[in-house]
C-alpha cells in the first residue's frame, strides 16, 4: 500500500494573493495617474508601490500554487501537519481508535496508553493534549476541516480502514 496524501485547501494563500493583486492594481493606477499628470508627488510613490506590491503579488501567487500536505497516511501511521500543535508522526501501533469530533471539525485520536504517549511529546504539545483531555475531548485531534476534495467522514473511514489493515497484519 502506498502512502495517501490529503492536501490542504489554500484559501488563505489565495486571499493573500487577491489582496496583493488589488494593491498592485491600485499602485499602478496611482503611478499612471502621476505619470499622466506629470506629478512627481503621485508618480514616484505609485511606481515604488507598484514594484513592491508586484513582487509581493508574485510571491503570494507562488505560495497559493504550492501543494501543502494536511495529513499523510502511510501503512505504518499518520504524519499530521494539520495545525501548529500537530503531533507529527503517529504510529498505528500507538492508536487505540479514531472518533469524529464534529464541533472541532476534526478526527479524534485515542492512543492505547495516553500517559506514556503524552510524555513523549514536547511540553507545548503535552499541554495541548492535557487541555483536550480536561475539556473531555479526544487527547489528539487531526484538524481536517480544511482538507481538499475530502470530507471529514471520508478521511475518518480511510483512517479506520488503514488501522484495521495494520491490526490484521501485526496484532
From TrEMBL:
The chain crosses the membrane at residues 16-34, 40-59. It comes from the Bacteria. Keywords: Membrane, Transmembrane, Transmembrane helix. NCBIfam families: STM3941_fam (NF041635). This is Uncharacterized protein. It comes from Anaerocolumna jejuensis DSM 15929. The lineage of its organism: Bacteria, Bacillati, Bacillota, Clostridia, Lachnospirales.
